[in-house]
Amino acid sequence: MQTIDNFNFAGQKAFVRVDFNVPLDEKFNITDDTRIRAAIPTLKKILADGGSAIIGSHLGRPKGVDGKYSLQHILQRVSELLGVKVDFASDCLGESAVEKAAVLKPGQALLLENLRFYAAEEGKPRLSDDASDEEKAAAKKAEKANQKEMAKQLASYVTVYVNDAFGTAHRAHASTAIMADYFDAEHKLFGYLMQNEIDAVEKVLKDTAHPFTAIMGGSKVSSKIEIIENLLTKVDNLIIAGGMTYTFTKAMGGKIGNSICEDDKLDLALSLIQKAKDNNVNLVLAIDAKAADSFSNDANTQFVPVGEIPDGWEGLDIGPETEKLFAEVIENSKTILWNGPTGVFEFDNFAGGSSAVGRAIVNATEKGAFSLVGGGDSVACVNKFGIADKMSYVSTGGGALLEFIEGKELPGIKAIRGY
Ligand code: AMP
Prior knowledge:
Helix 10 (320-331) packs parallel to helix 11 (352-366). This protein is of the alpha/beta class. The chain has 14 helices and 17 strands. Strands 3-4-2-1-5-6 form a 6-stranded parallel β-sheet, sandwiched between helices. Helix content is 37%, strand content 16%. The chain has 2 domains: 13-195, Rossmann fold, CATH 3.40.50; 208-406, Phosphoglycerate kinase, N-terminal domain (Rossmann fold), CATH 3.40.50.1260.
Protein backbone atom coordinates (compact mmCIF):
# COMPACT_ATOMS: atom_id res chain seq x y z
CA MET A 1 0.00 0.00 0.00
CA GLN A 2 1.21 3.49 -0.85
CA THR A 3 1.83 5.89 2.05
CA ILE A 4 1.88 9.66 2.12
CA ASP A 5 5.42 9.78 3.51
CA ASN A 6 6.74 7.62 0.67
CA PHE A 7 4.82 9.32 -2.12
CA ASN A 8 6.53 12.11 -4.03
CA PHE A 9 3.85 14.50 -5.27
CA ALA A 10 6.23 16.41 -7.61
CA GLY A 11 4.38 17.01 -10.87
CA GLN A 12 1.27 15.20 -9.57
CA LYS A 13 -2.21 16.59 -9.17
CA ALA A 14 -3.88 15.26 -6.03
CA PHE A 15 -7.58 15.15 -5.18
CA VAL A 16 -7.66 15.50 -1.42
CA ARG A 17 -10.93 14.57 0.29
CA VAL A 18 -10.98 16.49 3.55
CA ASP A 19 -13.61 17.00 6.23
CA PHE A 20 -14.02 20.78 6.35
CA ASN A 21 -17.50 20.44 7.83
CA VAL A 22 -16.80 23.17 10.39
CA PRO A 23 -19.36 24.95 12.57
CA LEU A 24 -20.33 28.46 11.36
CA ASP A 25 -22.18 31.21 13.21
CA GLU A 26 -25.12 33.12 11.72
CA LYS A 27 -22.71 35.49 9.92
CA PHE A 28 -20.84 32.48 8.46
CA ASN A 29 -17.78 32.97 10.65
CA ILE A 30 -16.01 29.74 11.55
CA THR A 31 -16.44 29.10 15.27
CA ASP A 32 -14.03 26.14 15.45
CA ASP A 33 -11.44 25.51 12.73
CA THR A 34 -10.01 22.28 14.21
CA ARG A 35 -11.06 20.23 11.20
CA ILE A 36 -9.32 22.57 8.76
CA ARG A 37 -6.14 22.60 10.83
CA ALA A 38 -6.21 18.80 10.98
CA ALA A 39 -5.84 18.48 7.18
CA ILE A 40 -3.13 21.13 6.74
CA PRO A 41 -0.09 18.81 7.16
CA THR A 42 -1.28 16.66 4.24
CA LEU A 43 -1.97 19.65 2.01
CA LYS A 44 1.39 21.25 2.90
CA LYS A 45 3.28 18.03 2.08
CA ILE A 46 1.64 17.86 -1.38
CA LEU A 47 2.47 21.47 -2.23
CA ALA A 48 5.98 21.32 -0.74
CA ASP A 49 6.79 18.27 -2.88
CA GLY A 50 5.88 20.30 -5.98
CA GLY A 51 2.41 18.86 -6.48
CA SER A 52 -0.94 20.61 -6.68
CA ALA A 53 -4.04 19.94 -4.59
CA ILE A 54 -7.70 19.91 -5.53
CA ILE A 55 -9.54 19.99 -2.22
CA GLY A 56 -13.02 18.48 -1.88
CA SER A 57 -15.31 18.53 1.13
CA HIS A 58 -18.90 18.65 2.23
CA LEU A 59 -20.33 21.28 4.58
CA GLY A 60 -23.57 20.63 6.44
CA ARG A 61 -26.48 18.74 4.97
CA PRO A 62 -27.67 20.78 1.97
CA LYS A 63 -30.62 19.48 -0.01
CA GLY A 64 -29.27 20.97 -3.24
CA VAL A 65 -27.32 24.11 -4.19
CA ASP A 66 -27.65 26.41 -1.17
CA GLY A 67 -25.43 29.44 -0.49
CA LYS A 68 -25.75 28.84 3.23
CA TYR A 69 -23.57 25.77 2.84
CA SER A 70 -21.07 27.23 0.35
CA LEU A 71 -17.42 26.40 0.97
CA GLN A 72 -16.72 29.98 -0.10
CA HIS A 73 -17.35 30.81 3.60
CA ILE A 74 -14.20 28.97 4.62
CA LEU A 75 -11.94 29.76 1.64
CA GLN A 76 -10.06 32.57 3.34
CA ARG A 77 -9.31 30.53 6.46
CA VAL A 78 -8.03 27.64 4.36
CA SER A 79 -5.69 30.05 2.52
CA GLU A 80 -4.47 31.55 5.81
CA LEU A 81 -3.76 28.20 7.41
CA LEU A 82 -2.14 26.75 4.31
CA GLY A 83 -0.08 29.88 3.68
CA VAL A 84 -1.07 29.87 0.00
CA LYS A 85 -3.86 31.75 -1.77
CA VAL A 86 -6.31 28.98 -2.57
CA ASP A 87 -8.45 29.34 -5.71
CA PHE A 88 -12.17 28.46 -5.66
CA ALA A 89 -14.34 26.57 -8.15
CA SER A 90 -17.96 27.58 -7.74
CA ASP A 91 -19.14 24.12 -8.77
CA CYS A 92 -17.40 20.83 -8.06
CA LEU A 93 -18.46 19.19 -11.34
CA GLY A 94 -19.23 21.90 -13.90
CA GLU A 95 -16.98 23.81 -16.28
CA SER A 96 -15.58 26.01 -13.57
CA ALA A 97 -14.05 23.00 -11.84
CA VAL A 98 -12.88 21.29 -15.04
CA GLU A 99 -11.15 24.44 -16.32
CA LYS A 100 -9.59 25.44 -13.02
CA ALA A 101 -8.41 21.90 -12.31
CA ALA A 102 -6.80 21.71 -15.78
CA VAL A 103 -4.65 24.82 -15.35
CA LEU A 104 -3.56 24.17 -11.76
CA LYS A 105 0.25 24.47 -11.42
CA PRO A 106 2.65 22.81 -8.97
CA GLY A 107 2.40 24.48 -5.57
CA GLN A 108 -1.17 25.65 -6.19
CA ALA A 109 -4.41 24.60 -4.51
CA LEU A 110 -8.04 24.73 -5.60
CA LEU A 111 -11.03 24.36 -3.29
CA LEU A 112 -14.14 22.87 -4.90
CA GLU A 113 -17.67 23.93 -3.99
CA ASN A 114 -19.61 21.69 -1.58
CA LEU A 115 -19.67 18.12 -2.92
CA ARG A 116 -23.07 17.53 -1.32
CA PHE A 117 -24.71 20.12 -3.55
CA TYR A 118 -25.10 17.01 -5.72
CA ALA A 119 -27.23 14.15 -4.41
CA ALA A 120 -24.85 11.89 -6.35
CA GLU A 121 -22.14 12.48 -3.74
CA GLU A 122 -24.15 10.49 -1.19
CA GLY A 123 -25.73 8.32 -3.90
CA LYS A 124 -29.14 8.76 -2.30
CA PRO A 125 -32.04 10.37 -4.16
CA ARG A 126 -33.63 13.41 -2.56
CA LEU A 127 -37.30 12.53 -2.96
CA SER A 128 -40.38 13.79 -1.23
CA ASP A 129 -41.96 11.38 1.26
CA ASP A 130 -45.04 10.94 -0.92
CA ALA A 131 -43.06 9.35 -3.79
CA SER A 132 -44.31 5.84 -4.62
CA ASP A 133 -42.18 2.77 -3.90
CA GLU A 134 -41.52 2.32 -7.65
CA GLU A 135 -40.43 5.94 -7.97
CA LYS A 136 -38.14 5.51 -4.98
CA ALA A 137 -36.57 2.31 -6.36
CA ALA A 138 -36.01 3.86 -9.81
CA ALA A 139 -34.55 7.03 -8.30
CA LYS A 140 -32.25 5.01 -6.10
CA LYS A 141 -30.89 3.09 -9.06
CA ALA A 142 -30.41 6.29 -11.07
CA GLU A 143 -28.63 7.99 -8.19
CA LYS A 144 -26.19 5.08 -7.80
CA ALA A 145 -25.33 5.48 -11.51
CA ASN A 146 -24.95 9.23 -11.03
CA GLN A 147 -22.68 8.56 -8.07
CA LYS A 148 -20.34 6.49 -10.25
CA GLU A 149 -20.34 9.24 -12.89
CA MET A 150 -19.56 11.87 -10.26
CA ALA A 151 -16.71 9.77 -8.85
CA LYS A 152 -15.35 9.26 -12.36
CA GLN A 153 -15.42 12.96 -13.15
CA LEU A 154 -13.73 13.97 -9.88
CA ALA A 155 -11.07 11.32 -10.53
CA SER A 156 -10.50 12.69 -14.04
CA TYR A 157 -9.14 15.98 -12.62
CA VAL A 158 -6.10 14.37 -11.01
CA THR A 159 -3.35 11.74 -11.02
CA VAL A 160 -3.55 10.67 -7.36
CA TYR A 161 -6.31 10.29 -4.76
CA VAL A 162 -5.73 11.17 -1.12
CA ASN A 163 -8.37 10.56 1.55
CA ASP A 164 -7.83 12.63 4.70
CA ALA A 165 -11.47 12.81 5.79
CA PHE A 166 -11.72 10.46 8.77
CA GLY A 167 -14.99 12.12 9.83
CA THR A 168 -16.71 10.65 6.72
CA ALA A 169 -14.77 7.37 6.52
CA HIS A 170 -17.94 5.46 7.48
CA ARG A 171 -19.74 6.73 4.36
CA ALA A 172 -19.52 5.10 0.92
CA HIS A 173 -19.85 8.39 -0.94
CA ALA A 174 -18.53 9.34 -4.39
CA SER A 175 -15.58 11.31 -3.04
CA THR A 176 -14.91 9.29 0.14
CA ALA A 177 -14.81 5.80 -1.32
CA ILE A 178 -16.17 5.23 -4.86
CA MET A 179 -13.61 7.43 -6.63
CA ALA A 180 -10.73 5.36 -5.23
CA ASP A 181 -11.73 2.67 -7.78
CA TYR A 182 -10.36 4.89 -10.54
CA PHE A 183 -6.78 4.76 -9.22
CA ASP A 184 -4.29 1.91 -9.02
CA ALA A 185 -2.82 0.88 -5.64
CA GLU A 186 0.22 3.14 -6.15
CA HIS A 187 -1.96 6.22 -6.66
CA LYS A 188 -4.39 6.17 -3.75
CA LEU A 189 -3.38 6.77 -0.18
CA PHE A 190 -4.39 8.07 3.23
CA GLY A 191 -3.48 11.59 4.31
CA TYR A 192 -1.67 12.10 7.62
CA LEU A 193 -4.84 12.69 9.65
CA MET A 194 -6.53 9.54 8.37
CA GLN A 195 -3.38 7.50 8.93
CA ASN A 196 -2.99 8.83 12.48
CA GLU A 197 -6.63 8.05 13.30
CA ILE A 198 -6.32 4.48 11.97
CA ASP A 199 -3.03 3.96 13.83
CA ALA A 200 -4.54 5.21 17.11
CA VAL A 201 -7.62 2.98 16.93
CA GLU A 202 -5.55 -0.05 15.89
CA LYS A 203 -3.11 0.54 18.71
CA VAL A 204 -6.05 0.39 21.11
CA LEU A 205 -8.01 -2.48 19.57
CA LYS A 206 -5.38 -4.69 17.92
CA ASP A 207 -1.97 -3.92 19.30
CA THR A 208 -3.30 -3.56 22.86
CA ALA A 209 -1.12 -3.15 25.94
CA HIS A 210 -2.97 -4.57 28.99
CA PRO A 211 -4.70 -3.75 31.25
CA PHE A 212 -7.06 -2.10 28.76
CA THR A 213 -9.79 0.10 30.29
CA ALA A 214 -12.68 1.63 28.38
CA ILE A 215 -14.74 4.39 29.94
CA MET A 216 -18.15 4.62 28.35
CA GLY A 217 -20.21 7.60 29.40
CA GLY A 218 -22.90 9.72 27.82
CA SER A 219 -26.62 9.74 28.13
CA LYS A 220 -28.00 6.50 26.73
CA VAL A 221 -26.96 2.88 26.65
CA SER A 222 -29.02 2.35 23.47
CA SER A 223 -26.60 4.45 21.39
CA LYS A 224 -23.58 2.53 22.68
CA ILE A 225 -24.74 -1.12 22.66
CA GLU A 226 -22.66 -2.27 19.73
CA ILE A 227 -19.52 -0.60 21.00
CA ILE A 228 -19.97 -2.01 24.49
CA GLU A 229 -20.54 -5.49 23.05
CA ASN A 230 -17.40 -5.30 20.93
CA LEU A 231 -15.36 -3.86 23.81
CA LEU A 232 -16.48 -6.69 26.10
CA THR A 233 -14.41 -9.03 23.91
CA LYS A 234 -11.32 -6.83 24.25
CA VAL A 235 -11.09 -4.90 27.52
CA ASP A 236 -9.96 -5.88 31.01
CA ASN A 237 -12.04 -3.14 32.69
CA LEU A 238 -15.20 -1.50 31.43
CA ILE A 239 -16.25 1.60 33.31
CA ILE A 240 -19.88 2.56 32.76
CA ALA A 241 -20.59 6.20 33.56
CA GLY A 242 -22.94 9.06 32.71
CA GLY A 243 -26.69 8.78 32.28
CA MET A 244 -26.56 5.12 31.25
CA THR A 245 -25.50 4.26 34.80
CA TYR A 246 -29.11 4.51 35.93
CA THR A 247 -30.43 1.96 33.44
CA PHE A 248 -27.95 -0.51 34.96
CA THR A 249 -28.78 0.58 38.52
CA LYS A 250 -32.53 0.20 38.01
CA ALA A 251 -32.03 -3.17 36.28
CA MET A 252 -30.20 -4.36 39.41
CA GLY A 253 -33.06 -3.22 41.64
CA GLY A 254 -31.71 0.17 42.75
CA LYS A 255 -33.77 3.35 43.34
CA ILE A 256 -32.90 6.04 40.80
CA GLY A 257 -35.46 8.79 41.49
CA ASN A 258 -35.91 10.92 38.38
CA SER A 259 -32.55 9.97 36.84
CA ILE A 260 -32.40 9.38 33.10
CA CYS A 261 -33.26 5.77 32.35
CA GLU A 262 -34.23 3.64 29.36
CA ASP A 263 -36.87 1.32 30.76
CA ASP A 264 -36.90 -0.79 27.61
CA LYS A 265 -33.18 -1.51 28.02
CA LEU A 266 -33.22 -3.04 31.51
CA ASP A 267 -32.89 -6.60 30.17
CA LEU A 268 -30.12 -5.46 27.88
CA ALA A 269 -28.24 -3.97 30.85
CA LEU A 270 -28.56 -7.30 32.70
CA SER A 271 -27.32 -9.23 29.67
CA LEU A 272 -24.30 -6.90 29.36
CA ILE A 273 -23.53 -7.51 33.05
CA GLN A 274 -23.69 -11.27 32.40
CA LYS A 275 -21.56 -10.98 29.27
CA ALA A 276 -18.91 -9.07 31.22
CA LYS A 277 -18.84 -11.92 33.78
CA ASP A 278 -18.62 -14.57 31.05
CA ASN A 279 -15.70 -12.71 29.45
CA ASN A 280 -13.90 -12.05 32.73
CA VAL A 281 -14.25 -8.33 32.24
CA ASN A 282 -14.20 -6.20 35.36
CA LEU A 283 -17.38 -4.12 34.93
CA VAL A 284 -17.03 -0.99 37.04
CA LEU A 285 -20.24 0.84 37.87
CA ALA A 286 -20.68 4.04 39.88
CA ILE A 287 -21.24 3.62 43.61
CA ASP A 288 -22.37 7.14 44.48
CA ALA A 289 -24.01 9.99 42.60
CA LYS A 290 -24.20 13.75 42.77
CA ALA A 291 -27.97 14.08 42.80
CA ALA A 292 -29.84 17.27 41.94
CA ASP A 293 -33.41 18.38 42.65
CA SER A 294 -33.76 19.75 39.09
CA PHE A 295 -31.96 19.54 35.76
CA SER A 296 -30.08 22.80 36.22
CA ASN A 297 -26.61 24.04 37.13
CA ASP A 298 -28.09 25.85 40.13
CA ALA A 299 -30.05 22.89 41.50
CA ASN A 300 -29.67 21.83 45.15
CA THR A 301 -27.38 18.83 45.36
CA GLN A 302 -26.50 15.93 47.62
CA PHE A 303 -24.20 12.92 47.37
CA VAL A 304 -26.06 9.64 47.72
CA PRO A 305 -25.38 5.96 47.04
CA VAL A 306 -26.18 5.37 43.38
CA GLY A 307 -29.07 2.96 44.08
CA GLU A 308 -30.66 5.19 46.74
CA ILE A 309 -31.59 8.34 44.87
CA PRO A 310 -34.64 9.90 46.58
CA ASP A 311 -37.84 10.58 44.67
CA GLY A 312 -37.74 13.98 43.02
CA TRP A 313 -33.94 13.88 42.66
CA GLU A 314 -31.80 12.82 39.69
CA GLY A 315 -28.18 11.76 39.36
CA LEU A 316 -26.36 14.29 37.22
CA ASP A 317 -22.78 13.25 37.95
CA ILE A 318 -20.75 10.66 39.84
CA GLY A 319 -19.89 11.22 43.49
CA PRO A 320 -16.47 11.38 45.23
CA GLU A 321 -16.33 7.64 46.08
CA THR A 322 -16.87 6.78 42.42
CA GLU A 323 -14.26 9.33 41.34
CA LYS A 324 -11.74 7.49 43.53
CA LEU A 325 -12.84 4.07 42.29
CA PHE A 326 -12.64 5.06 38.62
CA ALA A 327 -9.30 6.87 39.07
CA GLU A 328 -7.68 3.80 40.61
CA VAL A 329 -8.74 1.56 37.73
CA ILE A 330 -7.69 4.13 35.14
CA GLU A 331 -4.32 4.88 36.70
CA ASN A 332 -3.42 1.17 36.67
CA SER A 333 -4.17 0.83 32.95
CA LYS A 334 -1.83 0.67 29.96
CA THR A 335 -4.46 1.35 27.30
CA ILE A 336 -7.41 3.70 27.82
CA LEU A 337 -10.36 4.54 25.62
CA TRP A 338 -12.68 7.34 26.72
CA ASN A 339 -16.02 7.96 25.12
CA GLY A 340 -18.66 10.08 26.82
CA PRO A 341 -18.78 12.22 29.99
CA THR A 342 -19.56 10.88 33.47
CA GLY A 343 -22.26 13.49 33.99
CA VAL A 344 -23.88 16.62 32.62
CA PHE A 345 -20.48 18.27 32.12
CA GLU A 346 -22.03 21.21 30.28
CA PHE A 347 -23.14 22.42 33.77
CA ASP A 348 -20.00 23.38 35.71
CA ASN A 349 -21.48 21.99 38.93
CA PHE A 350 -21.77 18.54 37.33
CA ALA A 351 -18.47 18.51 35.44
CA GLY A 352 -16.38 17.35 38.41
CA GLY A 353 -16.61 13.63 37.66
CA SER A 354 -15.61 14.03 34.02
CA SER A 355 -12.77 16.29 35.10
CA ALA A 356 -11.58 13.66 37.63
CA VAL A 357 -11.67 10.97 34.94
CA GLY A 358 -9.72 13.31 32.64
CA ARG A 359 -7.08 13.88 35.34
CA ALA A 360 -6.72 10.15 35.97
CA ILE A 361 -6.20 9.58 32.24
CA VAL A 362 -3.55 12.33 32.19
CA ASN A 363 -1.76 10.62 35.10
CA ALA A 364 -1.88 7.22 33.41
CA THR A 365 -0.68 8.70 30.13
CA GLU A 366 2.24 10.38 31.91
CA LYS A 367 3.15 6.95 33.29
CA GLY A 368 3.27 5.54 29.73
CA ALA A 369 -0.29 4.41 28.99
CA PHE A 370 -1.78 5.02 25.54
CA SER A 371 -4.99 7.06 25.78
CA LEU A 372 -7.49 7.58 23.00
CA VAL A 373 -10.34 10.02 23.46
CA GLY A 374 -13.09 10.37 20.94
CA GLY A 375 -16.68 10.47 19.91
CA GLY A 376 -18.31 13.85 20.26
CA ASP A 377 -18.73 14.99 23.83
CA SER A 378 -15.56 13.51 25.29
CA VAL A 379 -13.60 15.74 22.94
CA ALA A 380 -15.60 18.73 24.16
CA CYS A 381 -14.76 17.55 27.71
CA VAL A 382 -10.99 17.40 27.27
CA ASN A 383 -11.11 20.77 25.54
CA LYS A 384 -13.17 22.27 28.40
CA PHE A 385 -10.64 21.01 30.96
CA GLY A 386 -7.63 22.08 28.84
CA ILE A 387 -6.12 18.58 28.78
CA ALA A 388 -6.49 17.62 25.11
CA ASP A 389 -2.73 17.87 24.51
CA LYS A 390 -2.08 15.55 27.46
CA MET A 391 -3.96 12.65 25.85
CA SER A 392 -2.06 10.32 23.52
CA TYR A 393 -4.62 10.90 20.79
CA VAL A 394 -7.84 12.89 20.46
CA SER A 395 -9.89 11.67 17.53
CA THR A 396 -11.58 14.05 15.08
CA GLY A 397 -14.14 11.41 14.17
CA GLY A 398 -17.62 11.14 15.66
CA GLY A 399 -19.72 8.48 13.95
CA ALA A 400 -16.70 7.17 12.03
CA LEU A 401 -14.74 6.55 15.22
CA LEU A 402 -17.67 4.85 16.92
CA GLU A 403 -18.26 2.52 13.95
CA PHE A 404 -14.54 1.74 13.79
CA ILE A 405 -14.55 0.78 17.49
CA GLU A 406 -17.70 -1.28 16.95
CA GLY A 407 -15.49 -3.37 14.66
CA LYS A 408 -17.20 -2.35 11.41
CA GLU A 409 -15.38 -2.02 8.10
CA LEU A 410 -15.28 1.65 7.07
CA PRO A 411 -15.80 2.18 3.31
CA GLY A 412 -13.35 5.12 3.17
CA ILE A 413 -10.60 2.97 4.65
CA LYS A 414 -11.43 -0.18 2.72
CA ALA A 415 -11.43 1.69 -0.60
CA ILE A 416 -7.74 2.42 -0.13
CA ARG A 417 -6.22 -0.49 1.73
CA GLY A 418 -8.71 -3.21 0.80
CA TYR A 419 -10.04 -4.01 4.30
P1 AMP B 1 -23.62 11.02 24.36
O1 AMP B 1 -23.88 11.93 23.20
O2 AMP B 1 -24.47 9.79 24.39
O3 AMP B 1 -22.16 10.74 24.56
O4 AMP B 1 -24.12 11.80 25.64
C1 AMP B 1 -23.53 13.00 26.08
C2 AMP B 1 -24.52 13.73 26.89
O5 AMP B 1 -24.88 12.94 27.99
C3 AMP B 1 -24.01 15.05 27.44
O6 AMP B 1 -24.73 16.08 26.84
C4 AMP B 1 -24.32 14.94 28.93
O7 AMP B 1 -24.89 16.12 29.44
C5 AMP B 1 -25.31 13.81 29.00
N1 AMP B 1 -25.29 13.15 30.29
C6 AMP B 1 -24.25 12.61 30.94
N2 AMP B 1 -24.60 12.16 32.15
C7 AMP B 1 -25.90 12.43 32.32
C8 AMP B 1 -26.84 12.23 33.38
N3 AMP B 1 -26.47 11.64 34.51
N4 AMP B 1 -28.11 12.65 33.19
C9 AMP B 1 -28.48 13.24 32.04
N5 AMP B 1 -27.64 13.46 30.99
C10 AMP B 1 -26.36 13.06 31.13
